[in-house]
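Look over both lines before class:
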Amino acid sequence: MTFEGLPLLLGWELTLACNLRCQHCGSSAGSGRPNELTLDEALAICTQFPELAVQEVVFTGGEPLMQPYWPQLATRLRELQIKVGMVTNGLLLSPRIVAEIQACGIREVGVSLDGLETTHDEIRALPGAFLRSLDGLRRLLDAGIHATAITTVNALNVHELPALYARLHAAGVPQWQVQPLFGFGRGREQTRLHLSSDQYLDMGRFCQEHGPLAADSGMTLVPADGCGYCSPFDTQGAPWRGCSAGIADCGIMSDGRVKGCLSWPDSLVEGDLRQDTFWDIWFRPGAFAATRNFTCADLGGECRTCEMGAQCGGGCSAKSIAATGQFHADPYCYRAILAARLTTQ
């Protein structure tokens, strides 16, 4: 059967270069990749998006603002009527850069804040990083740009979530996304950051309790895909229906290679935009097989016996691969952890 889905949402790693060396970074970002796309190559790739009905492109890194051609790329995508967003560590959000973001038509920017001031600065290995990023968030909001704070929840900051909520609310941040740590790159090495099952449940309870409070106060609290599936802690939106990487989402690496999700290891590349068109990579027979061809026989670990396995697909693919080395077996699952608690009582 011919696959009929389209890559409606693209993550685009503009560069692997970064001005930080964060302890939890799944990409081990720092230096750029050896042969990153030129501006002309990147612009040519943009022209392939409309035929695939791409609706939104989110610039990531590394630190995307360290790629000099980001304004030209954003402008071209807006000319193609494709929505453009960005995720940044916030350190480079000077008044000039914020004005440039606004001029390019970027209306959605996520800024990473990984705990209260001391914790954030420790994880980011830079004193003063928290206040600089928070200042950048405020500049975005003052410019009329929709800004989201993004927190990677880990063992050092999970207990700070209520206090961080209060800090972000006081700053007028309209949206806050929380997501669990993925154990890739430097994040794999820093085992002290890894969430225990109890801490993972603490994150779920926090989202369940504070989601309505945030909504009442004008803030949207967004638990990201890796936060849980088919459990009492699901707080908003449509029920989890499995990983959408390679089905409706896709990632482009800074050297033009393509994979289902930018959080996946580089070994899971599906094609190279320097060698093939995006259309050919996307519709290649057998492409993105782990998600497109999923059946319950692919489930691993505790997912094998879960009654929600067919719907869930074994949870977040990135978390599953990081924890077990395989797809469809994410052990960080509220439902499974809660069930295990019941059997031991």
Summary: The beta strands are 9-13, 56-60, 83-88, 108-112, 146-153, 175-180, 220-223, 249-252, 257-259, 269-272. The first strand starts at residue 9 and ends at 13. The longest helix spans residues 197-216. The radius of gyration is 20 Å.
